[in-house]
Request: fold
Amino acid sequence: MADLNEIKKQLKEYDGEPLTIMEVCGTHTAAISENGIAGMLSPKIRLISGPGCPVCVTVASYIDRLVELSLTPDTTVVTFGDMMRVRGSERSLRDATAMGGSVKMIYSPFEILKLAEDQPEHMFIFAAVGFETTTPVYALIIEQLIKSGIKNIRLLTALKTMPGAIREVVKLGTEVTGFLAPGHVSVITGHRLFEKMAEELGMPFVTAGFEGEELLMAIYALIKLKGGKSLNMYPSVVSYDGNTKAQETVNKYFEPCDAAWRGMGIIPGSGMKLREEYMEFDAGSAELVYDKLYNNACSCGQIISGLKSPNECPMFGKVCTPDAPQGACMVSMEGSCFHYYINKRR
Reply:
C-alpha cells in the first residue's frame, strides 16, 4: 500500500465514480469527526454514519420501562451516564430522579454486584444495552450471580447484533458502496463475520482501527476493493475467528431474538435475550420488542439508517444541541449528531 502522504493525496484528488462509505461503529464516528477526516476527502467520497451507537438505537419503550422501574418502591435502576438523558415517550431517567425515582449511574458493570451485596433487600435493575462488545460482560455478571447466590439483580436487556442492522440498511435502500466494519465488535466476532457479510451483500468491508491514520488507510482500501471483498486492517487486535471464549460464554446464557431498533422497526434475529433457564434474572425484556416515537420532527431513525445526515434534520443545531438534546443521536457521546455538532461538521 502507498505511504500515508500518497494516500492522503489520492483520497483528496479522487475523481472516480461517487462512493458512499458507512461506518457502523460509534467510536469510528467520533474518530472521523475529531480527526476532520471528511474534510480530507474528495467531494466524490461521502462518509455516512450507521446504527453503531448502542444508546442511539435503543427504543423509547425501553426507556419508558426503566423509568417505571425506577419509580417502583425498593428498586434502583443502574445505568451508564449516556442513558440518563435519553427520553422515552414522555420522560428520561433524569426526569424520573426529579420525580423521586431511584437511579444509580455507574462506570463499570460489575459495580452492581457490590451494590446488591450491600443492600440484599433492595432490587437492582441493570440497563443492559450494547452490541457484541458488551454482551460478554453481562454474561459474566449472570455467571457471577449464580456463583455468589445474589438474588436481587435483574437485567433489562436491549442487546443488539450488527449483521441484521447492516442488512436492514441495505434493504432500506441506503446508498452505500462499502462499509467500515466496527473495530470493537470485530474483536469479539472476528473478521470472519464481515468477510461473510461482504460476500453475501456483494460489497467491500474493511475492519479498521480508530486512529486517524488507520481510518484514512481503511477508506483508501475501500476505494480499491471491489464487490464482495474484505480486508482486516486491524490485525493487532482483531483475529479471523475473534474471541471464541467470549462467544462461548455469551451463547451459554443468551440466544438470538428479534429486536426493535430506533426508527428502523423490528429486525428479525438482531438481538440477544437470556435463555429460558436464566429468565429468573430478566426484568421483563421480552415485553419491549416494539418502538414508539416521541418526537416526529426528530430524524434520528433516518440518521441511524444512513438515509439522512445530521445536517438534514430540521432540529439539528437549532432546538437540538448537546445542551438541549431532542434525540438520542445528540445525547450520546457516540451519536453522529453530537459529533457533527461539537466538531462543526457541516
Q: What stands out?
A: The longest helix spans residues 135-148. The CA atoms of residues 136 and 250 lie 5 Å apart. The mean pLDDT is 93.
